[in-house]
From TrEMBL:
InterPro entries: Aminotransferase_I/II_large (IPR004839), Asp_trans (IPR000796), PyrdxlP-dep_Trfase (IPR015424), PyrdxlP-dep_Trfase_major (IPR015421), PyrdxlP-dep_Trfase_small (IPR015422)
Cellular-component GO terms for this entry: mitochondrion
Family, per entry: Belongs to the class-I pyridoxal-phosphate-dependent aminotransferase family.
Keywords: Aminotransferase, Coiled coil, Pyridoxal phosphate, Transferase
Cofactor(s) required for function per UniProt: pyridoxal 5'-phosphate
Name by which UniProt lists this protein: Aspartate aminotransferase
GO molecular function, one term: pyridoxal phosphate binding
SUPFAM superfamilies on file: PLP-dependent transferases
Keyword Lyase: no
Lineage: Eukaryota, Sar, Alveolata, Apicomplexa, Conoidasida
């Protein structure tokens, strides 16, 4: 019976990481595929502040089930960190989820429940390109019609503003619009404040639900306020708008995988803006049911660590300083890679330093990326996307030499 299943197919990113591990040919092989902050040996780094929090939690560990909504204190702290509100706002329904993917799962299913009452099949719009899970989660798993809006101009190596605005403005009414709060994955090129205002305006006019994927607060720039600007501006608009028909309806999917290094602990939160007591109660009930039927209860170790850090002023400050160090190192790696490439090629590589966060879109073609893997052991995706933390101050010259070679410079 099982033989009727389709042939096995590797996830592209993990498939390339597997090729890297199996490569016995290249002594200087480099893994630029996996999106994690790693040390010189390629091991994911555990922040010292997180290690301390884990040690504190281990002294008196909690091992019981959480309720489907998750840990309420964790949800409140996450809401305050993201929205910068002094007190919990009942207009924001917050539910714990297994990292950003879990939060997106809640968002997709919640919107589907809503649109099932008004449309035969919900439609979700994602940027072209975007994180692949956006498409598979909304399309394959939840049955949306997934469409793309223009984002990246491959020729100019920046956002295609005209295409972006045209596609966004022509999207079907009552759709889900999926965006990235900061450190856009995979391009590293973020929307300007003016472009965000355009998104908010379109979503209000056409009664869209805006889903903001926030995976890099504090990690992207080292500045929590800057990285959460779009989220806080959406909240400001939502609170200030009195006419219900003009309200900005939005959901924020928050992850602690990158900014606390809790990759394997799957820790995140889904925040749904639902003004009005009746709306908030309905949203909380439905979101909790969705969580219950998919994972029943969220993992608690990660949320315990987050609480330990955010409730301890000294530990929180140590964590913030570590994040600022991470952000600065990535910025320096970008600058060094740009300099190395401009020394070896006649091209302008300014787009590498115009981008921000974990990933960089190099502009390399698929055939060039394949050559880099096969001939030089430099493992990156066929799209030309690299994970910047995979670069080190020791291997950047080798990476630049390899890229220069495939460019025939």
């Amino acid at each position: 019976m099982w033989s009727e299943l389709p042939p096995p197919e590797d996830d592209k990113i993990f498939g390339i990481a597997k090729e890297y591990r199996n490569d016995k040919t290249h002594e200087q092989k480099v893994n630029l595929s996996i999106g994690a902050y790693v040390d010189e040996s390629g091991k994911a780094i555990c922040f010292k502040s997180v290690q301390k929090a884990m040690s504190n939690c281990a002294k008196d560990p909690e091992v019981g089930y959480l309720m489907p909504r998750g840990d309420l204190v964790f949800c409140e702290l996450s809401q305050k960190l993201l929205f910068s509100v002094p007190e919990v706002d009942d207009r924001i329904v917050s539910i714990q989820a297994p990292s950003g993917t879990g939060a997106l799962t809640v968002a997709a299913n919640l919107c589907k429940e809503l649109f099932s009452r008004t449309a035969s099949q919900p439609v979700a719009y994602v940027s072209n390109p975007t994180w692949p899970i956006h498409k598979t989660l909304f399309g394959v798993q939840c049955g949306y019609v997934v469409k793309e809006y223009g984002y990246w101009d491959a020729a100019k190596l920046t956002i295609d503003d005209a295409k972006f605005r045209s596609d966004m403005d022509s999207a079907n009414e009552h759709s889900v619009i999926i965006t990235h709060a900061c450190a856009h994955n995979p391009t590293g090129q973020d929307l300007s404040h003016e472009q965000w205002e355009f998104v908010f305006d379109v979503c209000r006019r056409k009664q869209h639900i805006l889903v903001i994927d926030c995976a890099y607060q504090g990690f992207a720039s080292g500045d929590f306020e800057r990285d959460a600007w779009a989220v806080r501006r959406a909240y400001e608009i939502g609170v200030q708008t009195e006419n219900q028909k003009e309200k900005l309806c939005f959901i924020v999917c928050q992850s602690y995988a990158k900014n606390m290094g809790l990759y394997g602990h799957r820790c995140g939160c889904c925040h749904i803006f639902a003004p009005g007591k009746e709306s908030a109660e309905k949203v909380l009930s439905m979101a909790s049911k969705i969580a219950r039927r998919i994972w029943s209860n969220p993992p608690r170790m990660g949320s315990d660590v987050v609480k330990a850090i955010l409730l301890d002023p000294q530990l929180k400050q140590e964590w913030i300083q570590e994040l600022q160090g991470v952000s600065e190192k990535i910025r320096l790696l970008r600058a060094k890679l740009r300099t190395a490439l401009e020394q070896r090629t006649p091209m302008d590589w300014a787009h590498l330093t115009n981008q921000i966060g974990m990933f960089a879109y190099t502009g390399l073609r698929p055939d060039q990326c394949k050559r880099l893997r096969a001939e030089y052991g430099v493992y990156l995706l066929d799209t030309g996307r690299i994970s910047v933390p995979g670069c080190t101050f020791e291997n950047i010259d080798y990476i630049a030499d390899s890229i220069s070679s495939v460019l025939n410079c």
